[in-house]
């Protein structure tokens, strides 16, 4: 193994046309299985280890491809002989085995770091506390009209698997802070930071600064020939940039400021200017509603403009984009009551956008695993728009205490079917029933998708 020039104590992992050495993959989920397949194809000896149970579909992939694996345990002695470890994003650094791996100076990388070594594609990396799934999906929706492009990262089939099976010329990658924590050389041509609000602080020792720094790793390896698109209305982002300048060419977007190079809102139009080349997009025909979606459209359009997509294509794509499942998704209207699935709102800021966009009295279903939430920014909307609150979580005490005096009706339950039935009884014609939990889902559900699907099923069964 070559040593790093910049840090001799850090072993660098070798990448050429063929891999070299022993690759251990921690975690046998989507990113783990994809990395294992790509690693084997590139000549690594591969071993997949998962402390939990590997899902049957991934197990079959590993067996079919003759990749060695174990689940419900970690064989530490074997793992510590690795030349490189790919760690799935769900595994925190504080896990004793990960600490041991680092003590042995074995490089620990994320799937996006590993996979990016085996493609020459143009990479668009999108991160942020909220809006990254919608922005990534919308960007892909526009680009695919004219380019050969894949959508990966935190969404869909793994990046590694797509490189192996399709090797698209371009990729839009939705990237979490956990994935960015384990990059070394990863460098997107275009990076997007949608916004930064407190989230996942339990993984960052309750240090917001650490979480912010983690998000900005997306631009860490960029040069002046690369681009960073960001929300200029977000004080967290602009303050961090002032104190920690990046090498990238900056393209801000804003709803309130006039931007010379980037995107801004002028009355009903999005104006995008890059190197004196300007396009104007009317917001009145945007398929997605809400101020936050104007920002998502600005970010996606700026990426598309950089990649030379025709103006007409961008306009048409913005008008016909259908949105993302579990993000402000209209499910059904029953007795003139609209049921809305926003299960993807796993933090307070996401729920802020949801409540802000409500235009009718709302029965709000909230709750789950609280990640140190501060609900204060929601108070104005709760007072203005929310007629009843249904707390859906294993422990609802904080929600009951916080919102108990703000609404006439506040009820708690541990069952989605019951939550929807209660909402059905409370809601009147013209109201909304909104599932926007502001919390993670792991107390009662497998993940936010499971929570959203259960909500939709319960609504359909009314």
TrEMBL record:
Residues 126-303 form the Mur ligase central domain. Belongs to the MurCDEF family. The gene is murD. HAMAP family: MurD. This is UDP-N-acetylmuramoylalanine--D-glutamate ligase. It is found in: Cytoplasm. It catalyses: UDP-N-acetyl-alpha-D-muramoyl-L-alanine + D-glutamate + ATP = UDP-N-acetyl-alpha-D-muramoyl-L-alanyl-D-glutamate + ADP + phosphate + H(+). GO terms for cellular component: cytoplasm. It comes from Hwangdonia lutea. Cell wall formation. Catalyzes the addition of glutamate to the nucleotide precursor UDP-N-acetylmuramoyl-L-alanine (UMA). InterPro entries: Mur-like_cat_sf, Mur_ligase_C, Mur_ligase_C_dom_sf, Mur_ligase_cen, MurD. Residues 326-439 form the Mur ligase C-terminal domain. It is an enzyme of class 6 (ligase). SUPFAM superfamilies: MurCD N-terminal domain, MurD-like peptide ligases, catalytic domain, MurD-like peptide ligases, peptide-binding domain.
